[in-house]
UniProtKB/TrEMBL annotation:
Subcellular location(s) per record: Cell membrane
Location of region: Disordered: 1-32
Low complexity bias spans: 9-22
Domain Major facilitator superfamily (MFS) profile: 39-426
Alphabetical UniProt keywords: Membrane, Transmembrane, Transmembrane helix
GO cellular component terms listed in the entry, alphabetical order: plasma membrane
Any Pfam family: MFS_1
PROSITE patterns per the UniProt record, alphabetical: MFS
Organism (species): Micromonospora chaiyaphumensis
Positions of transmembrane segments: 41-65, 77-100, 107-126, 132-155, 167-193, 199-218, 245-268, 280-299, 311-330, 336-356, 368-392, 398-420
The keyword Ion transport is assigned to this record: no
Protein name: MFS transporter, CP family, cyanate transporter
Length: 429
C-alpha cells in the first residue's frame, strides 16, 4: 500500500502542494493517509525486529566458538571457515538481492529471508555433524545477507522524509542485538548446560521478526500487479568498477570489514587465552559494539561537515593501531582500554557507509556505488576470519594474527586517503 519513493527532487516538492488545496479537498482526503500511517508503523516495527537479528547469529557463535569447536570437533581451519561465512554470504547474496527485488516484492523476499534465518539457526543446533553445522549456518546467514541489503531500500521507500531518523533507529536495534547476543550467549549456554541453547535461543527472535512482514507481503501483491513496465526503467548506468574512486571505496569497505569480522569471530577467544573466564570474554566482545554506538551516531555528522575526511581516516587508524598493539603486548591487564580503542577504530564502518552517499550525486550513483563497494568489499573481508584462524592454529598465539590485522589496517588507510578528497562517482565515468 505504501507508494515507492519519488525518483526526483521535483516529485518530493510536488507532494506538499497537493496537501494545501483549498475548499473540499481536505474533507475528501482523510481516508487515504490512514492506511500509509498504519503501514508505515508496521514497516518500522518490522524493520526494527529484523535489525535486532542481523548480527545475533554471528556474535553468539563467536562467544561460544570454543565450546562449539569441542562439541563438534572443529579444527582451527574449520572454525575459521565458520567465522568467514558471514562475509561470503554478504558478498554473494548482497549482489543477488537487487535481482530478487526486481522479481518479487521486497516484503515477500524479507519473509523468506527471515524464515531462512529461523530454520538455519534451528537446524544448526540440533546436528552433531560439523559439515551440516556449516551448511545450516550458511542458510541462516543467507537470510541475514538479504535482509542487510533490503533495510536501506525500505527506509527510502517508506520513510523518504525521515531517512536519518529511521536509519538511526534500526542501526541502534542492530547494535542492541549484536551486544546482547555477545554478552548473553555464554550465560544462556551455561544455564541450560549446552552451547546449543546459547545459539538456538536466537531462532525464536528471528521467528518473531517474520510476523510483521506477512501482512505487508500480502498487501504488496496488488501493487506489484499494477506496476507498469515504465516504472522499472532506469537511467544510464554508473559503473564504479571502472573508476579509481569505486575501487578505493571497495578496498576501504573490505579492509574495515575484514578487521571487524575477525574481531567479532575471534576477540572472545583471544581474551579467553589471556586468562579471562568465558562470561567475561563475551562481555568484553560485547563492549566493542556497545561502546561504538556513540561513534556510529556522531560519524555521519562529522563526515558531512568536514571539508576532507582525512582527519577521520587517520584518527580511526590511530585508535585501531593502538588497540592491536595493546592486545599483542598486554591483553589481560588493560583489556578495557583496548576494547574502548577498538570501538573507536570500528567507526570506520559508519564512516564508509556515510561516504557512499557523499561520493555520489544521484540516487542511481549511490545505489551503484553501494552495491559495488559492499559486494567487492565483503569478498575482501572474507579473508579476515579465515586467515586469523589459520595463523592462530599454525602459531598457537596471537602475534601473527594481530600482525596480519595491522597490515590490513595499512591498506585500509591508503584507500581512505583516496576517498577522503571530495568528488563524485558520476564525474569519473
Amino acid at each position: 500500500m505504501t507508494p515507492p519513493p519519488p525518483p526526483t527532487a521535483a516529485a518530493v516538492t510536488d507532494a506538499p502542494t497537493t496537501d494545501v488545496t483549498p475548499g473540499p479537498a481536505p474533507a475528501a482526503a482523510p481516508a487515504p493517509p490512514a492506511t500509509p500511517v498504519r503501514g508505515g508503523l508496521l514497516v518500522l516495527v518490522g524493520m526494527l525486529l529484523v535489525a535486532v537479528n542481523l548480527r545475533a547469529a554471528v556474535t553468539s557463535l563467536g562467544a561460544l566458538l570454543d565450546e562449539i569447536r569441542d562439541g563438534l570437533g572443529l579444527s582451527g581451519a574449520m572454525a575459521g571457515l565458520v567465522t568467514t561465512l558471514p562475509t561470503i554470504a554478504f558478498a554473494g547474496l548482497g549482489a543477488l538481492t537487487p535481482w530478487l527485488v526486481r522479481r518479487w516484492p521486497a516484503a515477500r523476499v524479507l519473509v523468506v529471508a527471515m524464515l531462512a534465518l529461523t530454520v538455519g539457526q534451528v537446524l544448526r543446533v540440533v546436528t552433531g555433524s560439523a559439515a551440516v553445522f556449516v551448511l545450516t549456518s550458511a542458510l541462516a546467514l543467507a537470510g541475514i545477507a538479504v535482509a542487510n541489503i533490503l533495510l536501506p531500500m525500505l527506509v527510502k521507500q517508506h520513510f523518504p522524509h525521515r531517512t536519518g531518523l529511521v536509519t538511526g533507529a534500526y542501526t541502534m536495534a542492530l547494535t542492541v542485538g549484536t551486544t546482547v547476543a555477545a554478552a548473553s550467549a555464554v550465560p544462556v549456554a551455561h544455564a541450560f548446560g549446552s552451547w546449543r541453547a546459547g545459539l538456538g535461543v536466537w531462532a525464536g527472535l528471528a521467528a518473531v521478526a517474520v510476523l510483521p512482514w506477512v501482512p505487508l507481503a500480502l498487501r504488496t501483491r496488488a501493487a506489484r500487479r499494477t506496476a507498469t513496465p515504465a516504472a522499472a526503467a532506469g537511467p544510464a548506468r554508473v559503473r564504479p568498477a571502472r573508476t579509481r574512486l569505486g575501487w578505493a571505496m571497495a578496498v576501504y569497505f573490505g579492509a574495515q570489514s575484514l578487521s571487524g569480522y575477525a574481531i567479532m569471530g575471534w576477540l572472545a577467544q583471544l581474551f579467553r587465552d589471556a586468562g579471562y573466564a568465558p562470561e567475561a570474554a563475551g562481555l568484553l566482545l560485547a563492549g566493542v559494539t556497545a561502546l561504538g554506538v556513540p561513534v556510529a551516531l556522531l560519524m555521519p555528522t562529522l563526515a558531512g561537515r568536514l571539508p576532507t575526511l582525512r582527519p577521520l581516516v587517520l584518527s580511526l587508524t590511530a585508535f585501531s593501531t593502538a588497540a592491536y598493539v595493546g592486545l599483542a603486548l598486554a591483553p589481560h591487564s588493560l583489556a578495557p582500554l583496548w576494547v574502548l580503542l577498538l570501538a573507536f577504530g570500528q567507526g570506520a564502518f559508519p564512516l564508509i557507509l556515510t561516504t557512499i552517499g557523499l561520493r555520489a550525486r544521484t540516487a542511481e550513483g549511490t545505489v551503484a556505488l553501494s552495491a559495488f563497494a559492499q559486494s567487492t568489499g565483503y569478498l575482501i573481508a572474507a579473508l579476515g576470519p579465515l586467515l586469523v584462524g589459520i595463523l592462530y592454529e599454525a602459531t598457537g598465539g596471537w602475534t601473527a594474527p594481530i600482525g596480519f590485522l595491522l597490515v590490513a589496517l595499512a591498506v585500509q588507510t591508503a584507500a581512505g586517503m583516496v576517498i577522503a578528497r571530495p568528488r563524485h562517482i558520476e564525474d569519473e565515468r
